[in-house]
Each structure stands twice: as C-alpha cells, then as structure tokens.
Design a protein that fits this description.
Elements (H helix, E strand, L loop, with lengths): L1 E8 L9 H15 L7 E5 L2 E5 L5 H8 L5 E11 L2 H13 L6 E8 L8 H15 L4 E2 L6 E7 L2 E5 L3 E5 L8 E5 L5 H11 L3 E8 L6 H18 L3 E6 L1 H10 L5 H20 L4 E2 L12 H8 L6 E2 L7 H11 L2 H4 L6 H4 L11 H25 L1 E4 L1
Parallel strand pairs: 5-6, 5-7, 10-11, 10-13, 11-12, 13-14
Antiparallel strand pairs: 1-3, 1-4, 2-3, 4-8, 4-9, 7-8, 12-15
Helix pairs in contact: 3-4, 5-6, 7-8, 7-13, 8-9, 8-13
The protein binds adenosine-5'-triphosphate (ATP) and magnesium ion.
Length: 386
C-alpha cells in the first residue's frame, strides 16, 4: 500500500494547446514545488498525474501541490494492487476509519479494460462487502455521508476526498511577463492572475532608498516569496530609483511628477522585459482607484510602452482584490505600514487628466540625462531569485 496524491487537470484548457507539452510542463511545475521533499515522485498516467510521497509528508505536500496552476482538484489516495479481493479488503479498512458516517456510496471507475469486472459491478460488489461488514451502515446514492471512490487502472486508487484547486494553466505555457511589483495590495494579485493564465513572472520593484527603507524592500521580497508558491520561480529586480525620482521632482511640474515617474517605471520595466525575454508588462492598476488611474492617466502611462501592458485588475473593486489577497496569503504582508516610493513623492494636486503632448513636453528637459540614468538603474539593479 502506498500513499499518493491524485492530480486532475482540466480537459477544456487542453483543447487549443499541445496536450503533451501542457502535461509535461505541469509535471515539471509540480516537481519544482516539491523539490524539498526527498520522497516525492511525480509520474503521468492516463488522464492524471500521480505524486507518490511518504505518509508523513503527505499533508504538507498537498498544501503545496494545491497551489500549482493548471490543477482542477486533488485527492489523497491509497494505491493497491488491482485485484478484487485486495480492493475489498481496503474498502473495509477505509470504511472502518470513518466513525460518524451513517450512509455511504461507492463510485467505481474501471480505467483498465483488462480488469475483468465492469465499473457498476465493482461498485455493487464493494457496496455488498461493506454492508456485510458494518451492520448500521446504509447506502445513499444521492447524499451519502461517505463516498468511496475506486479507480481501477494498472494499479487501483482509492480515496474519499476531493480538494478543489485554482485551475488555470501551468505557469510557463504563456511566456513571460514583467510585473511592476510594489509592496501594495494590488500588484501581487495582478501577478497572481496572470500567472494563473500561464505567465511566468519577472518582477520589477523600484526602490527609493533611503526614502523607502530596507524594510520596505524586504516586504516586496516577502511578497514575491509568497507569490512564488503559486507562480513558481520568480526573478525579482530591485531597481535603484531615487536619483531618477529626485531628478523628476526637481525638473518637472509638480502636478505631473506622478505620471512622469510612472512613465519612467514603465520604460525601465520594458528594458528589463527585453533583457529577460518577457513579452508584456503587468501592473496592479484598477480604473479610478487613485488619481493616476483615470483613463487619461493610464493612457499617458501606456503611451511609452512598446509591448502590451496587462492590467488584470482593471475592473476589480478594492474589496474583490482584498478577498483574493487574503485567500492567497499576501494581504497581511501588503498592509505592513512601510512607505512606498509613490506616497513619499506624491504631489498635493496630481494631474488627473494629463495630456500626453503636455507630458512629453515636460519630459524634454530630462530626456537626455534619463537615457544614461535608466541604463545605470537597470545595470545596478539587484536580482533576487525566489
Ligand atoms: P499597489 O497596491 O500594487 O501598490 P496602488 O493601488 O498603490 O497599487 P499605484 O501606486 O498607483 O497604485 O501603482 C500602480 C501600479 O504601479 C502598481 O500596482 C504597480 O504595478 C506599479 N508600481 C507602483 N509603485 C511601484 C514600485 N515602487 N515598484 C514597482 N511597481 C510599482
Ligand atoms: Mg502602491
């Protein structure tokens, strides 16, 4: 008898994609999330992925596997030989471990046609054996207290728990994106949503030391670490931004500094995207949330980008974003009170309807020095792998 995690992936998601590539990538991502577990082995069988693992490590491994995108649900299962007497014995054993069930049902699936008994008959036989062994139990096909699942394949998998997971596509199948990751609530969720659709993340954090402290940076590192449980390996660029920001504040009209600063963030993120082979930028912006997130504001930020800018939270309310942040575990870290660079340099009356032409005009005075400053910022960036 062996303990495994039975992994189910979505069939619909497979249609447009190369099925085998998708499954191999999912296997790779599962292996990656379990790399600390020496006993873990991951293999493909028809329509499923099977993770075998020591019983002692099972629940911790399930916690990790559950978070991998591309998985619909998992079940902790027992693997036994595909022989009717062995299956019957195991069914009784599993039933005996349940103390509070009054009713039960057996759902049997024969995946291996070489097995001589058909699915409904396997179910009936096991039901009979259980009824004989436990006098008080009754069968309830519609709302059983306990549903025993039996999948007969080359080996037989028996389980009674379905744990639903996050779905999505395996990270990596949709290419790479550069996420502008601040220490706030929104951008980690923006990254999460894109990773859910298969995007591998390179994160870019603009650090304005000493205006933003080392603790503010650590907070971003911690957020990236939490995200990596879902998103797999994350590369985090910590870009020194103080000089650029100071120059903008010094030489541009106060009302426009936020937008101009955001435009330089996009430009630098795009330079990093190019270096890393990322084909899009991702931000945590949501329409109307703050002064710079009006249509005009987003338009002015967008205008500097030459690759698509994805804003997966554009139509989300803050409460909806917070809900996801709480569910995936980034919220508590995001609300730690360390300053982010934007709040320090925020003007009293920011422009809410900037005109791109006016912004471009203001940028003329700094354009030339910025070329070098941006190159330096990228080459001086610290790269942290999570
Ligand atoms: P968040 O909660 O993600 O910080 P926000 O609501 O504070 O977002 P803004 O400060 O306007 O909104 O930032 C909008 C987006 O710009 C962020 O979601 C993020 O993608 C990016 N961003 C802002 N500040 C930084 C920073 N210091 N480093 C990297 N990206 C940033
Ligand atoms: Mg913020």
């Amino acid at each position: 008898m062996e303990h495994v995690i039975l992994v189910r992936y979505g069939e619909i998601a497979l249609k447009g994609l190369n099925r085998r590539y998708f499954i191999d990538l999912l296997v790779k991502n599962i292996k990656n999330t379990l790399r600390r577990f020496e006993s873990a082995k991951v293999k493909k069988i028809q329509g499923r992925i099977i993770v075998s693992i020591n019983e002692a490590e099972l629940s911790e491994a399930m916690q990790r596997v559950q978070k991998v995108f591309g998985i619909i649900s998992i079940s902790p299962a027992i693997v036994i030989e595909s022989k009717m007497d062995v299956i019957e014995e195991q069914a009784i054993k599993m039933m005996a471990e349940v103390s509070d069930a009054k009713t039960f049902k057996v759902t049997a699936k024969r995946g291996d046609k070489r097995f001589p008994i058909q699915s409904p008959e396997i179910g009936r036989r096991l039901g009979g054996v259980i009824l004989d062994a436990f006098e008080d139990l009754k069968v309830d096909l519609f709302e059983p207290d306990f549903n025993l699942w039996v999948e007969v394949r080359e080996q037989t998998y028996m389980y009674h728990q379905f744990i639903s997971c996050n779905g999505g596509l395996p990270v990596g199948c949709s290419g790479k994106g550069a996420l502008l990751l601040s220490g706030g609530i929104d951008s980690p969720i923006a990254g999460y949503q894109m990773a859910k659709r298969g995007v591998e993340l390179t994160c870019v954090y603009f650090h304005s030391f000493p205006y933003t402290s080392d603790r503010a940076k650590q907070k971003v590192v911690d957020l990236a670490k939490i995200m990596s449980q879902y998103c797999g390996k994350i590369q985090l660029y910590v870009v020194p931004f103080t000089e650029i920001q100071t120059k903008i504040v010094e030489l541009c009209p106060p009302r426009q500094t936020t937008i101009i600063m955001r435009r330089y963030m996009m430009r630098i993120a795009e330079m990093i995207a190019e270096k890393e082979g990322a084909k899009s930028l991702i931000t945590g912006e949501s329409l109307g949330q703050v002064a710079s997130q009006t249509m005009e504001g987003l338009g002015a930020t967008n205008a500097v980008a030459n690759i698509p800018v994805f804003r997966p939270l554009i139509g989300f309310d803050k409460t909806e974003i917070v809900e996801i942040a709480q569910r995936i575990g980034t919220f508590e870290t995001s609300i730690l009170p360390y300053e982010d660079c934007c709040t320090i340099f925020v003007p009293k009356h920011p422009e809410t309807k900037p005109k791109v032409s006016a912004i471009e005009k203001s940028e003329e005075s700094i354009q030339e020095i910025m070329v070098d400053m941006m190159t330096t910022a990228v080459s001086d960036a610290e790269i942290i792998i999570l």
